[in-house]
């Protein structure tokens, strides 16, 4: 197993300690969240009682295969806890998410949770965001128009592809990956992007972290956000 996977597993293992019996738990998306879902599956097989609300079809499928009882956000609109991964996190707990294209549902779950824990391997910690392109979820009808507007503010948007065709999110939208290097006021950038009609959501997750768990080869560091 490679070192990054080991670090992801350590982060997931540390997050498991925050999960209490009877919780309605938001299940993130991506390889780190998948590690947590696998651990939860083991717990559920031993009789642990939780209900998951998945942030993507992919996580729903994995959880289902592992026998984790699932609910939907419609049935369970308030989550006790949400645990998800991230692509980048800076020292102020600002994050980029959406590398797996699940940013919209992920942000909705994060907003619906009483508490949010994010689990990352230490390679995700950065001084400033942007080496990882910022995913933007865009309504297909608006795609070309949004591209032009993003080009005008030098964000160099790239249409995300999958097997040669435009990537399609679980909500049927497209993803544009934008180059935000050089921008430091993320709140302002986020508001500016959300003001463009057709951009449904951005992968900038600001003010969402309650606890950040950073996995390494042998364990995990716990960082509480003093917000
Ligand atoms: O859309 C995907 C999510 O935001 C993921 O949480 C993020 O991309 C991190 O994924 P991974 O744990 O695979 O690095």
From TrEMBL:
<dbReference type="GO" id="GO:0004751">
    <property type="term" value="F:ribose-5-phosphate isomerase activity"/>
</dbReference>
<feature type="binding site">
    <location>
        <begin position="97"/>
        <end position="100"/>
    </location>
    <ligand>
        <name>substrate</name>
    </ligand>
</feature>
<comment type="similarity">
    <text>Belongs to the ribose 5-phosphate isomerase family.</text>
</comment>
<dbReference type="InterPro" id="IPR004788">
    <property type="entry name" value="Ribose5P_isomerase_type_A"/>
</dbReference>
<comment type="subunit">
    <text>Homodimer.</text>
</comment>
<keyword id="KW-0413">Isomerase</keyword>
<comment type="function">
    <text>Catalyzes the reversible conversion of ribose-5-phosphate to ribulose 5-phosphate.</text>
</comment>
<dbReference type="InterPro" id="IPR037171">
    <property type="entry name" value="NagB/RpiA_transferase-like"/>
</dbReference>
<dbReference type="GO" id="GO:0005829">
    <property type="term" value="C:cytosol"/>
</dbReference>
<dbReference type="Pfam" id="PF06026">
    <property type="entry name" value="Rib_5-P_isom_A"/>
</dbReference>
<feature type="binding site">
    <location>
        <position position="124"/>
    </location>
    <ligand>
        <name>substrate</name>
    </ligand>
</feature>
<dbReference type="GO" id="GO:0006014">
    <property type="term" value="P:D-ribose metabolic process"/>
</dbReference>
<feature type="binding site">
    <location>
        <begin position="84"/>
        <end position="87"/>
    </location>
    <ligand>
        <name>substrate</name>
    </ligand>
</feature>
<feature type="binding site">
    <location>
        <begin position="29"/>
        <end position="32"/>
    </location>
    <ligand>
        <name>substrate</name>
    </ligand>
</feature>
<protein>
    <recommendedName>
        <fullName>Ribose-5-phosphate isomerase A</fullName>
        <ecNumber>5.3.1.6</ecNumber>
    </recommendedName>
</protein>
<comment type="pathway">
    <text>Carbohydrate degradation; pentose phosphate pathway; D-ribose 5-phosphate from D-ribulose 5-phosphate (non-oxidative stage): step 1/1.</text>
</comment>
<dbReference type="GO" id="GO:0009052">
    <property type="term" value="P:pentose-phosphate shunt, non-oxidative branch"/>
</dbReference>
<feature type="active site" description="Proton acceptor">
    <location>
        <position position="106"/>
    </location>
</feature>
<dbReference type="InterPro" id="IPR020672">
    <property type="entry name" value="Ribose5P_isomerase_typA_subgr"/>
</dbReference>
């Amino acid at each position: 197993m490679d070192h990054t996977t080991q670090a992801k597993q350590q982060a997931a293992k540390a997050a498991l300690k925050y999960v209490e019996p009877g919780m309605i738990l938001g299940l993130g998306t991506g390889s780190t969240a998948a590690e947590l879902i696998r651990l939860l599956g083991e717990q559920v097989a031993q009789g642990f009682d939780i209900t998951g609300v998945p942030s993507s079809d992919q996580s729903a499928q994995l959880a289902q295969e592992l026998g984790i009882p699932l609910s939907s956000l419609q049935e369970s609109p308030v989550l006790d806890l949400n645990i998800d991964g991230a692509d980048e996190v800076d020292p102020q707990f600002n994050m980029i998410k959406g590398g797996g294209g699940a940013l919209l549902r992920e942000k909705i779950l994060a907003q619906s949770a009483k508490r949010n824990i994010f689990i990352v391997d230490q390679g995700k910690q950065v001084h400033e965001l942007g080496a990882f392109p910022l995913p933007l979820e865009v309504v297909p009808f608006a795609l070309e128009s949004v591209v032009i507007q993003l080009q005008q503010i030098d964000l160099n948007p790239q249409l995300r592809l999958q097997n040669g065709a435009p990537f399609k999110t679980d909500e049927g939208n497209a993803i544009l990956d934008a180059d935000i290097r050089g921008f430091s006021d993320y709140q302002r950038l986020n508001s500016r992007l959300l003001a463009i009609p057709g951009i449904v959501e951005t992968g900038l997750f600001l003010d969402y972290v309650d606890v950040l768990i950073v996995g390494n080869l042998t364990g995990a560091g716990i960082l509480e956000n003093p917000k």
